[in-house]
């Protein structure tokens, strides 16, 4: 269970044509992406959950191509 932090008043400012706020250190989200949505008069900001590799691969369609054969190549001695 996560701790609830009491609301704090922040200033809104403009960043180009966008309205923005600074997220207080104690409210920082993990990662470098978030999802923002509006519910009534409230803005909800949620961190983007990191996708596991197997979840990503499950989204991809299988390849219809076969891999080429790999033949053994002669090796040359290497001086270390």
Automatic annotation (TrEMBL):
InterPro entries: SpoVT-AbrB_sf, VapB_TA_antitoxins
Tree of life domain: Bacteria
Protein's name according to its UniProt entry: SpoVT-AbrB domain-containing protein
